[in-house]
Design a protein that fits this description.
single chain; alpha/beta; 7 strands; 6 helices; Uracil-DNA Glycosylase, subunit E; 4-stranded parallel sheet
């Protein structure tokens, strides 16, 4: 069983909440979101906001704060092989209520099919807030979505 051990990142000014499924092996190891060097998340966000690519965790937190973005994941615990969402079983979901109460979230996005599916099944009925699907930025998703396509989709949906 894998337990989500990275604190949600948000502040009172956060307006956008982006939820993944559960941190990858590399993200769990480095203790921050989308930490695998081949994941395109930070590169895509930097491009759509026309900003410098944040490298360190502190730079990433500053970037998120500047753009009023909160990050967390749908899953609190699950069984998973490596980082593959397709192997996720026995899910318990995170409570995102405190993020919503202590921020100014206006829009919720889920990255990837598994995060979207689980949000819609477990969280949406309780919260009554619909999510907007964003394609996964994982390199495993390259066959489905090129980098340029990701940038275009994120730009259209987030900005």
């Amino acid at each position: 069983m894998i337990y989500h051990e990275i604190e949600p990142y948000y502040n009172n000014d956060s307006e956008i909440l982006i939820l993944g499924s559960i941190p990858s092996v590399k993200s769990r190891e480095l203790k921050f979101y989308y930490a695998h060097p081949q994941n395109r998340f930070w590169k895509v966000l930097a491009e759509i906001y026309n900003s410098k690519l944040p490298e360190s965790i502190e730079e990433k937190k500053l970037f998120l704060k500047q753009h009023k973005i909160a990050l967390f994941d749908v899953i609190a615990s699950c069984e998973i092989n490596g980082s593959s969402d397709s192997t996720i079983r026995n899910v318990k979901v995170n409570d995102i209520g405190s993020i919503l109460k202590n921020s100014n979230i206006k829009k919720i996005y889920t990255t990837g099919k598994k995060a979207t599916e689980l949000y819609q099944k477990y969280l949406e009925p309780k919260l009554k807030i619909k999510t907007t699907y964003l394609p996964s930025t994982s390199r495993a998703n390259c066959g489905y979505c090129t980098y340029d396509e990701l940038v275009q989709i994120y730009k259209e949906k987030i900005l």
